[in-house]
Specification:
single chain; 76 residues
């Protein structure tokens, strides 16, 4: 085997959403969704030449906004 895939795990400590004050599942899923959406949304917005309009800016910000929403929705 040439390489060993390293799983991505995100930790968020200091939150008040659960008793242990740490989150793992929500930030990890949010990061994965952000990366997958960015692979499609960012090139689409740039190729359409709509990145200078308000709609284009919303498309460019959609992956980060969605990832944050998912991370905040899952309390563990």
């Amino acid at each position: 085997m040439d390489c060993i895939p390293v799983p991505v795990v995100c930790f968020q400590c200091g939150t008040n959403q659960n008793p242990c004050h740490c989150k793992v599942v929500g930030p990890t899923i949010g990061f994965g969704v952000t990366v997958v959406m960015a692979l499609f949304c960012w090139p689409a917005a740039l190729l359409c030449c709509c990145c200078a309009t308000d709609t284009g800016k919303a498309v460019l910000a959609a992956p980060v906004d969605t990832g944050n929403a998912i991370s905040n929705a899952i309390p563990i």
